[in-house]
Amino acid sequence: MSEDFPVETDLRQGDALSPILYKIALESVVKKMQDDSIGLKIGEQNVVTAAYADDIIIIDETEDQVRNTANKLIEEGKSIGLNINEDKTKYLIVSQRQHHQNSISVGDMTFEKVHYFKYLGVDVNEKANSHEEINRIIIAGNKCYFSLVTLFK
Predict the structure, then answer these.
(1) pLDDT digits over 55-100, tens only?
(2) Is 85 exposed, middle or buried (0-12, 13-18, 19+ CB in 10 A)?
(3) How far does the chain reach from its first CA to its final CA, in angstroms?
(4) How far apart are CA 43 and CA 11, in angstroms?
(5) pTM of the full predicted structure?
(6) Locate the Reverse transcriptase domain: which residues (predicted)?
């Protein structure tokens, strides 16, 4: 161990080291959230978060559980010197029922509700409907194929 020291440089957007460094920094935070939260049961496992570099999704069944898990993320992140960007943080409720609340408050932060978002290139929507995403991927595949088809002849 060593004494604390200031970090005076940062990584550029898309830097190959970003996922590795965030994994090292956030591993303990995500682990703590997994241990203390209920999450969503998928198969035999409870899933609370999905994380890649600094992109984290909190997965819970109720708004209160999301609020509690987000609060843990904020607290644990602060304990290692990381802060949540309130402007970039959004929330989505996946449900067939209508939800009218437009924002959620966690501590002194307020997060905006969205109807869909893109995570690691995949569109996620509030109806848990994958038809649009499948069609988008098929169209992208067709565009790629037909742009190269003349090379195959």
Answers:
(1) 888 877 778 888 888 888 888 888 888 888 888 888 887 766 766 6
(2) exposed
(3) 62
(4) 37
(5) 0.67
(6) 1-124
